[in-house]
Amino acid sequence: MALAASLSLSFSSSLLASPLPQPAISKPHHNLSTFRAFRCAFAPPPPTNTPSTLPPPPKKKHWKQGEFPGISDSSLTRRPPLKNIKKRLDRKDGAAAWVNTVTEALADRIHKKHWLEALQVFEMLREQPYYQPKEGTYMKLLVLLGRSGQPQQARHLFDLMLEEGLEPTSELYTALLAAYCRSDLVDEAFAILNQMKALPRCQPDVYTYSTLIKVCVDACRFELVESLYDEMKQRDITPNTVTQNIVLSGYGKAGKFDMMERVLSEMLESTACKPDVWTMNTILSLVGYKGHIDMMEKWYEKFRNFGVEPETRTFNILIGAYGKQRLYDKMSSVMEYMRKLAFPWTTATYNNVIEAFADVGDAKNMEYTFDQMRAEGMKADTKTFCCLIRGYANAGLFHKVVGSVQLAGKLEIPENTSFYNEVIAACAKADDLLEMERVYKRMKDKLIRTDSTTFSTMVEAYRKVGMTDKIFDLEQEQKIMVADDSNDE
């Protein structure tokens, strides 16, 4: 209780209501020719009384060679009916309008990330004689397929593009390579890199190498990262700031802080890839997540001295790090500093504060923060309700867990794996295994993917009451899911 009172005093001052600052290849078609008929009409002279006088013969037009050949008077009078011309023009305009409408439908499917429907609409367009897909359309589809985890579909589309005679570019090859990288298919991505190096007009650039470096970093294959750096040096390709930020993040997540500082020192000394606010955010989030508060503050000052200005996300990182270490005074100071500098509090700002109180079961300050969030018109998201559910469970207020789930439904908050894991953990903490099983069934019915946290939470709940048969069933179910995932891959 004393802790809650002190937290309320230190935190409430920064939560006082104040106004937020508003800071195809087209087929050839023939043009219709409009023919003009010329008539030479010479009226005969009036008849005279002299019978020997004959009327002069009619003069004929002498056309130059090649000017108007081979057209008789009868052919000149047979003009195509105007109504038939109009029908043909209407059909052409109608087909073009249809293509434009379907093109808009394709753009809509791409925007909504519906990759299968986008491919179906694209196939319809390709069958039309008035539509010829361009490089930009293929680029958008390749990016969409990559982000949707469909590298094989991306490869098929790329091959189709080549069959239709469209010249590939390094950008298109990089988009195809990125599709394999997003699915962690490192060997296939390197095979595409080798194809690019064999084509004079499709040589890899810094974006190609940055994409490959990221997948190698995510897979902790740092030996490949060094080889890619060497290859870039041989090709006179200088890594940019984005490339270095990717490598910094990878070294930090792997705990290789000495390598991380080496890369950062190179950036500070470089003239081509200076550190920016993303660099600062990457370093602060990595160090702060590990709980190294002193190191985080040191790097923050170092970046400021170097001339890098913080942004809202920078302050949110600091708030989150202080909150996890229960340094509420510093957390509150950062929030007041944001107000002073006219940096708006965002959903992430409130989520970090709610999470800090949720981790220690401080329901009072957690609710106060959530109410202030809604009062200022800030929209809650899935993480907000995950923190609320965890906080109420830690405080033993399980009836409020139910209320939070119901409120999330009313607000149409997206329910993902993390959301259901928090509800399952709350049920397990309350020893309500029947409700836990109902939530798990609902999770599967809604096709929400389970993960290791889901199973470990339920197994621990069953182990506490000695329900070994339930544990066995869960383990078998997990094995089947792992096998299915392998088959899908």
TrEMBL record:
Which residue intervals make up region (Disordered)?
45-79
Enumerate composition-biased segments (Pro residues).
45-57
The cross-references to InterPro entries, in alphabetical order and at most eight, read:
PPR5-like, PPR_rpt, TPR-like_helical_dom_sf
Q: Where are the PPR repeats?
A: 134-168, 169-199, 205-239, 240-275, 276-310, 346-380, 416-450
Spell out the protein name for this chain: Pentatricopeptide repeat-containing protein
**Belongs to which family?**
Belongs to the PPR family. P subfamily.
A GO molecular-function descriptor: rRNA binding
Q: Which PROSITE patterns would you find in this protein's record?
A: PPR
Which Pfam families does this entry report, sorted A to Z?
Answer: PPR, PPR_2
Keyword terms: Repeat, Signal
